[in-house]
Write a structure and sequence with these properties.
This protein has 381 residues and is α+β, with helices and mostly antiparallel strands. 31% of the residues lie in helices and 23% in strands. The protein contains 10 helices and 14 strands. α3 runs antiparallel to α4.
């Protein structure tokens, strides 16, 4: 089986952490989008409402190649101005619901996401049963919480730009924003077509000052730098996850590991707690989880021995952890992320003609494409 092409076969609905109360200075706008990413919707809201970029918030980024439903907040936004809301060419943004609330939406302000995925029809009951068994296995062992390819940008462009900029080569970083295939060179004519999104802001700044790549990169705003930092941190996490899995440490914890309680906070595992923690981390129970690093100076630190091990394990990511310290473009406080996560709801399969529909719900930041990969389902045809 494979994921079928087209946005209609990849639907995602945000599960809000709270409902807007109906009063407050922030206009809450729930939209359905297709063919655009979340930053494109931010740009559309800015044009419609006339507010500053810092006034707009959302809880999580959603795929461009999907039908996605999510909330945005606009400080001091005027509901009447939403009549001017329009998507970039080739995309669609439709307002589903409007309310108000007291605070701005920020990344992570959500309970999770519910997905509805259309797969090519199973060739016989045996293939469908194999998928059921794979989903049951994931429900018992948890989903390996790897970052999907979307986090790194089309063709890995976000990660490539992050490496170039953080390594002190803003000219190459800006050139990769113009052309991720790296065929464009500084001094070549800039493309004249409209470029949506954050890379488009870099291109626009280069048109105004082609000899100032650092300025062009910074013109894309702090959100752009955060996106690049996240791509680099995600590469580190994936590398550590893979090495822990290969070492048989996905569900086995050691003294000095940083663990997260299900629905709770982080703690460093002590020698006295390791036996109890391993019982609680076991498949079928999944009450605590070993975590991997999203590097940064404020991240919850493991023991020095585990820290040294994680830095060594992350070498394949080709990311210098010092990039996230203060002063550089990728400065980030850092965090920890669970190596595995449980489903929020039991997955369901539905056969509709030649299409197998898979419905599932995941915690914030987890990738439905990883469910497919770990079940042996191929990507889009």
């Amino acid at each position: 089986m494979r994921l079928l092409p087209g946005a209609a076969h990849f639907q995602v609905t945000e599960l809000a952490a709270y409902e807007p109360c109906g009063a407050g200075e922030h206009l809450y706008v729930r939209v359905e989008k297709e063919g655009v990413n979340s930053d494109d919707v931010v740009e559309a809201l800015l044009r419609a409402t006339g507010r500053a970029r810092s006034d707009v918030g959302y809880a999580g980024r959603k795929d461009r190649l999907a039908i996605a439903r999510q909330w945005f907040s606009v400080r001091l936004g005027d509901e009447a101005s939403l009549a001017k809301l329009s998507a970039p060419a080739g995309g669609r943004v439709e307002v589903l619901e409007v309310s108000r609330h007291r605070n701005k939406l920020r990344l992570g302000h959500l309970h999770g996401n519910r997905f509805r995925l259309g797969l090519s029809g199973a060739e016989g009951e045996a293939e469908l049963e194999e998928l059921r068994e794979s989903l049951e296995r994931l429900a018992r062992f948890g989903l390996e919480n790897r970052f999907g390819a979307q986090r790194f940008g089309h063709g890995g462009a976000n990660l490539a730009v992050a490496r170039a900029w953080a390594s002190g080569d803003p000219a190459r970083a800006a050139a990769l924003c113009v052309d991720p295939s790296a065929e464009w060179r500084p001094g070549d004519p800039l493309p004249t077509d409209f470029r949506p999104g954050l890379f488009g802001r870099v291109v626009g700044a280069l048109r105004r000052a082609p000899d100032e790549p650092e300025r062009a990169l910074r013109a894309a705003g702090r959100g752009f730098a955060k996106l690049l930092a996240s791509a680099a941190q995600s590469a580190v996490f994936n590398a550590v996850l893979e090495r822990r899995r290969d070492a048989g440490l996905t569900h086995r914890v050691r003294p000095g590991d940083v663990l997260r309680r299900r629905g709770g906070g982080l703690f460093r595992c002590s020698a006295a707690d390791v036996d109890s923690a391993n019982e609680r981390a076991a498949p079928g129970r999944l009450e605590v989880f070993a975590t991997g690093p999203l590097p940064g100076p404020d991240a919850y630190a493991p023991s020095p021995e585990v820290d040294t091990e994680e830095r060594h394990w992350s070498a394949a990511a080709d990311v210098d952890w010092r990039w996230f310290d203060g002063g550089g473009p990728l400065a980030s406080p850092g965090d920890r992320r669970e190596l595995v996560v449980p489903f929020l709801e039991a997955p369901r399969l539905e056969l509709d003609g030649d299409v197998v529909w898979l419905e599932l719900a995941l915690p914030p930041g987890s990738f439905a494409t990883e469910v497919l990969t770990q079940c042996g389902v191929g990507g889009r045809v």
